[in-house]
């Protein structure tokens, strides 16, 4: 309660929680990403709220994370390990929740066999996953009132049992009994911590599901709703067992219910187990979306089920996988006891990794007093490692399943991300030089055909090597070409006014541009038609601003934050980094907005020239206005002539002399994942009739 509800919830990434959000938050304060596609402009989007001077500890941590490759790899490994464990946990929570509720039937129908209980559970699980396409908000609205009734009911039953059987059970709050328990049970008491751990499972999912709620709502509902109800339930069961020492503990909850309330309680218990499972499934959808946008998992289909609430996701492939896995777990393990043992290690490891990442956040982001950081780390790490040691002691009794499943997921994440990084670095090393681009565009045999060609590439710097490959095979390009890189930043949202960064490619009369379209990991990619309409609108603003403020120094326009210095080929001089590397620029409050007319610009020329003495005042004349208007008309005319989406069909293979492990990872595992993941044109919603694919092979 203290760690998650009152500390960790504040370490959110613009409202998103979980270990992956912690990694994203750290990525905003230190360049820890393994893909070298960071741009100085990204800092303007992601860190505009924290420009104060860093303290020495924060700077030390920042330098360590940015300069040490082992530190980057360790941070990445811990994050994906916790993420894989969380997804594995999502396979275990629905079976154990529903199976424990269905087991209550045996009190009223003792003739039911274990096989029948298992198949009833499987049927409920299939039905549960079948309605996921309706969306989290619809399911939540349906079950939320029932959960409130459920909490009130179990609290009342617990209070009833406490008063009826043994009110002296309240003495257990005396910490003295903790020491007595371990003194009396010794090693058995330590091993039992694994079962005690199950009393507070779910808090890690609560942190990951933060994106669906506000911090205050979680704190209030947890402190005044959930916690008192659960405490009274456990206290009531303990009081009942005090006078029924011969009773089996496995069904203590249903045995302690007054007979007249059994069926209402059973029905509510079943519904509550469903909504508890919903929390984990929602966590899996959100986590998988984050993984995919940061290039850590193969592409899958992501559907947004609510127009009113952002972040309401449904992923058919993940839903099907969780359904099959949950049914297999239920049929294989058959009892809640064995599933619980597998459940324990997921919770314990995620707790420890969360504490480690939280400590980094305290040092790097919050910059709190070192003694508070030390107290947090010592108290929680010492406690959680004791729990973890108890769970690991019973390793052979069941926890191997989530670890094995997590290992498979980690292999997928590591291989996909490794090849993605290597491919990006290969393209970065083989970018086409400005002189070569100019030579290609000025070739006599190069034919320009009507229309707008959108050339998709992952590179945010330079022209990719697939472009000369295309011209060499087919010496034909469109009248207007835009090289587009869809880039996902480690932040939840990027405002549309901050989305596009443009750069014109020389020679200017060739009408070739480069563009980075930036999205947060919770932003939705538009349909192809809507994307092109927005892109062309902002491209025309860029053409206007480029003509107005064409200077020797790079110029940064800012409405809609379309910066002309976004893709400089030239290396920045040494000693200039971060914001200082931009040179002088025009900021948001000093720039034209698209709705301003040229006459309004002329009226404000004097004021702008006073604030910007380093720039020559724009001299607006009729000829200049007509030239700008003509360029904009050319772009619009080519759009009307037709848009063609050009995608690189890149095949990646290991070099002939690579080691065996690399060949297996690249040539077999990655190739299998690539062929069985969603294609790029589907992710970008590109119409088949307007798609052109260009094949090329990279050796990495």
UniProtKB/TrEMBL annotation:
InterPro entries cross-referenced by the UniProt entry: K+_transporter, K_trans_C, K_trans_N
Main localization category: membrane
Domain K+ potassium transporter integral membrane: 1-436
Superkingdom, natural source: Eukaryota
GO molecular function: potassium ion transmembrane transporter activity
Keyword Zinc: no
GO cellular component terms, A-Z: membrane
Annotated compartments: Membrane
Residues of the K+ potassium transporter C-terminal domain: 450-700
Topology in the lipid bilayer: Multi-pass membrane protein
Family statement: Belongs to the HAK/KUP transporter (TC 2.A.72.3) family.
Protein role: Potassium transporter.
The name this protein goes by in its record: Potassium transporter
The organism of origin for this protein: Aegilops tauschii subsp. strangulata (Goatgrass)
Lineage of source species: Eukaryota, Viridiplantae, Streptophyta, Embryophyta, Tracheophyta
